[in-house]
Amino acid sequence: MVAEAKERLRRNVLAIRDSLSPEEAAEASAAIGQSLFTEEHFKNAKTVAFYLAKGNEVDTKGMIERAMREGKGVLVPITNEEITMCGLSSLSDLVPGKFGVPEPKTRKQGKHPPEVVIAPGVVFGLCMHRIGYGKSYYDRYFKKNTNAFKIGICFDFQVMEELPRHEHDVAMDLIITDKRLIKQGGHSIER
Question: Is the dihedral of CA 83, 84, 85, 87 positive or negative?
Answer without folding.
Answer: negative
